[in-house]
Design goal:
- By secondary structure, this protein is α+β, with helices and mostly antiparallel strands.
- About 25% of the residues lie in helices and about 35% in strands.
- The protein has a six-stranded antiparallel barrel.
- A hairpin with a 2-residue loop joins strand 4 and strand 5.
- The longest helix is centred in the C-terminal third of the chain and has 15 residues, at about 120-135.
- It starts with 15 loop residues before the first helix and ends with a helix.
- The relative contact order is 0.14.
Amino acid sequence: MANGRPFAGSLLVMGTYAKLSGIVGRRRDSRLRLGVPAQLITLSGQSSASLCDLSQSGAHVRAKGVLERGEDAVLTWLGFEAFGRIVWAGDGEAGLEFDELLAPAILIATRDQVDLGFAPSTRQADHDQARDWYLGSR
């Protein structure tokens, strides 16, 4: 390392250098931007959520209800689930850090479901839920 920078030709793999060197604010893993329906389950309860983005090590969600930093949580989406802890929360959004890294196959399968149109957007899911409620209440 010279002048706080890695030597030319040093290997930087998914933010590993940033993690080892203590640089703050760098993501360890790249994120898959989504916007698909999810469920967030904590000891406080279960809430509908929108999975904004996903990586091997964590996720960013928007959820209804109060989310508390430090709370254990289970995130479910598109037939997958991950256990973790809320590491930041505010204004109906939260960041989760998973207990174990997600397998790359889960990220690929999630991306494939979204790209192929098998996964509804959060907005479409909300619309479908409202329609079903309306039709069921008649």
